[in-house]
Specification:
- By secondary structure, this protein is an all-alpha fold.
- It has a domain of 27 residues.
- The protein is 87% helix and 0% strand.
Length: 71
Amino acid sequence: MPDDSVRRLLAALDTDQREAFSAKPPAEQERLAAAWEQELATDDELDTLDELSPPAAEAEAARRVMDREAD
């Protein structure tokens, strides 16, 4: 469900990124949430981090997606 991914991504973002994300239109938020889910599913380094701390893995994936968006 896209809304669930959007909410989970929003929770994983730091304060500054959360504000930038919230300012985006809903379609863009859903696109970023899908990219975040893809990052979590495909990055092997995040798999290892996820075993130690799922919230840390989600935050790292969120940072990566938002950093790519800023470039």
